[in-house]
Design goal:
mainly alpha, 1 helix, 98% helix, 0% strand, rod-shaped
Length: 82
């Protein structure tokens, strides 16, 4: 019987010791979740900027290619009549 009392007492002491640690762990988890959410927002904004920059670069490249094709066509027409 004495051993059961010690075991129950030890379990209660263990619980009392672990309770504050669980609170610390929960607080740390919340902090990590908040940091992760913030990083997700930053990443989403960066992806948006990258996407816009890529789209702008593609538009510029297309315009340059169209201008080069038009210039080549104009040079070909001008060379044939001269």
């Amino acid at each position: 019987m004495q051993e059961e009392g010690v075991t129950v007492g030890s379990a209660q002491q263990q619980e009392e010791l672990e309770a504050p640690r669980r609170g610390e762990i929960a607080a740390t988890e919340k902090e990590l979740e908040a940091n992760l959410a913030e990083q997700v927002v930053v990443l989403a904004k960066a992806i948006g900027r990258f996407s816009r920059a890529r789209s702008d670069a593609e538009d510029l490249l297309n315009k340059e290619q169209e201008a080069a094709a038009a210039a080549a066509e104009a040079a070909g027409e001008g060379g044939g009549t001269a």
